[in-house]
Design brief:
By secondary structure, the protein is an alpha/beta fold. It is about 40% helix and about 20% strand. A six-stranded mixed β-sheet has the order 3-2-4-1-5-6. It holds the Pfam family His_Phos_1.
Length: about 190
C-alpha cells in the first residue's frame, strides 16, 4: 500500500491578485511548520507540488527538513477561473460549477477539466513512483475534484465545509492504482 498526502496550501495573502505568485500570509508561513510536523513521520520519499508559490511554499519546509527536492507538476495547479478578473460572488460561482461540472467562464476551466488533468497527473506520479509515500502541495478546488473522482458524494457541501481550512491534508491510500481509503486531516 502507498499513501499520497495532498496538502492544501496554508493561508494565502489575498491582497495579491495574481494567482500564480500569491504568497502565504505570516500566519500561513507559521502553519507550514504544522505541515512539516504532520508529515515528518509518514515515510514520505518524494514531494511534488503545483507550480503556484503558495503550494510550493507550504511543503517547502517539510521537503527541506528531509533533504528532498520538490518536483513541480503543472497539472496539479488550481482551477483557472477566467482571464484574471476577480470574482465578486465566489460562492455563487462555486455552486454553479459543482452543480454542472462543465460550467466555466470565458477563458476559464470547468471542474471536469480540472479533475481530468489532476487525476492524469496523479496516475502518472503513481506509475513513476512505485515505492514510498508521496506528498503533493495543492489547492482546495483541485484537491476537491480529486476526492470527488474517488468519492462522488464529495460535492458542493463538502467543498464549502473545507474551503476556508488552510492548511488541509487528504491522505489517499492506494493498492496499485486502486483507492483503498480516503482520510482528512485538519492541521
Amino acid at each position: 500500500m502507498r499513501k499520497v498526502y495532498f496538502v492544501r496550501h496554508a493561508k494565502p495573502n489575498f491582497s495579491v491578485v495574481d494567482d500564480y505568485s500569491r504568497p502565504l500570509t505570516e500566519e500561513g508561513c507559521k502553519d507550514c511548520k504544522k505541515v512539516t510536523e504532520f508529515l515528518s513521520e509518514k515515510s514520505i520519499t518524494k514531494v511534488f507540488s503545483s507550480p503556484y508559490k503558495r503550494a510550493v511554499d507550504t511543503v517547502k519546509d517539510f521537503a527541506e527538513s528531509l533533504g528532498l527536492n520538490i518536483h513541480i507538476v503543472d497539472d496539479f495547479r488550481e482551477r483557472k477561473i477566467n482571464n484574471g478578473l476577480w470574482i465578486e460572488d465566489f460562492n455563487a460561482f462555486a455552486k454553479e460549477q459543482w452543480s454542472n461540472f462543465d460550467y466555466k467562464l470565458p477563458e476559464g476551466e470547468c471542474l471536469k477539466e480540472v479533475q481530468e488533468r489532476n487525476i492524469k497527473a496523479l496516475m502518472s506520479v503513481l506509475e513513476e513512483n512505485i515505492d514510498g509515500n508521496i506528498a503533493i502541495g495543492c489547492h482546495g478546488t483541485a484537491l476537491s475534484t480529486v476526492v470527488n473522482y474517488f468519492n462522488n458524494r464529495f460535492g458542493l457541501a463538502e467543498f464549502d465545509r473545507i474551503k476556508n481550512i488552510m492548511p488541509f491534508v487528504v491522505c489517499l491510500t492506494f493498492e496499485g492504482r486502486d483507492i483503498i481509503n480516503i482520510e482528512e486531516f485538519i492541521l
